[in-house]
Fold:
Amino acid sequence: MTVFKPGDLVVLKSGGPVMTVDTVNTDIFDDNKVTGVLCAWFVADKLERARFDYNAIVPASLQEATSEKTEPRPPEAAGEYKTMLDQMVAALNDAAQASNDASRTPAGRSKRATAGNDAVEQQAPAARGANRSDGAVRS
Structure:
């Protein structure tokens, strides 16, 4: 007889999901006489629990326990579809990079540009008009 303890991974002899031993029930007068094994497992996000006779379950092999937990990988993209996906990713990355670069512009830089424009606006009208070739004064 296999001795189960809480935390052991088991499966039904008839098949089914890998389950975790929760509790091993023993006879009230004899701790060596197992009367049932309470197991728990998940079906999607729902926790399931059931009591099984100890003769109905066997230890799960390590391969069974790990293969059920891993999801199959989707097939790799190929050909023109892969090229299109690569171009889309590159375009999104370029846009994100440009956005990050624009947000990193130092505040002092924009103030200097504004200060230069103000200096031109504050020039005397005659000085601004002197630069025109037709002699008209700008207002």
